[in-house]
Amino acid sequence: MTGRRPKLIASDLDGTVVAHYGDISQRTIDVFRRAHAMGIEIFFVTGRPPRWMPEIKEAFGIGNAICGNGAMLYDLHNGKVLEEWLMPVDAQLETVKRLRAAIPQISFAVESHNYFHREKKYIPRWDVGLDNVGVEAIEEIMAAPALKLLARCSDQELSSDEMLEIALKELAGIVTVTHSNPHDSLLEISAIGVSKGATLSKMAARLNIDAADCVSFGDNPNDFSMLQWCGRSYAMADGHPDGPKHAKSVAPPHTDDGVAIVIEELLELPA
Question: What structural domains and CATH numbers belong to the chain?
Answer without folding.
Answer: 8-85+195-266 (3.40.50.1000), 89-191 (3.30.1240.10)
